[in-house]
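Trying the structure run again after the queue cleared.
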Amino acid sequence: MPTSQETVAQIVLDHSECAAVFQKHRIDYCCRGKASLESAAAEQGLDVTQLLAELEVAIGARQGAPEADPRQMSTAALVAHIVSRHHAYLRHALPFVEPLAAKVARVHGAHNDKLVALERVVHELCETLAPHLDWEEGVLFPALMARDGDRAVIGQGFGSMQEEHLAVGSLLAELRRAADDFELPDWACTSYRTLFSELETLEGDVLRHVHLENHVLGPRFSPGAS
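Done. Tokens:
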């Protein structure tokens, strides 16, 4: 079971089901994954003992076989997994949620002005993620797959990737604030409810996507890695 001194990234690597608990509590296990559970809990004003209990419940409630451990995948298999699962999902989801956010803001923005801010954040997130996916698939990932890939070029690529991940992380935090943690008012219509459901799913998928790149893929190409 997790301990308070483990990093939040390590906990998710060992127990993928813990990601949903961290997502609910706004604990960044991607770009700030090196933080210990104790320090991450303190930053969010959470009791670490209670948080540990939640994580243990999530681990105990897992049904079926655990997900494949990405640390055991070859680099080629890991890249293929990222592209087929996470990139493909975003290429489908982003064109759907952006106009939906605009519609909900237009119809209900006068009733809840946070929806206007939410529309802006969704637009910025789409504008950031779409070219990022193209760059990874067209530039970074082929460099990783090359037999004699230039380590300096790859290092620069991962540096750029991490900067973009930080920007995406900030936008996801803004998105969750603007969406009031995805809590729905009683009067929310079907479009409003669909938008919030889709955005919460998108947030979770992007967090897992960035986590894989930051804490599994990236370290394989860091200085000193074999």
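The helical segments are 8-14, 18-24, 37-43, 48-60, 75-108, 114-145, 151-178, 190-217. Worth checking whether this holds up in the mutant runs.
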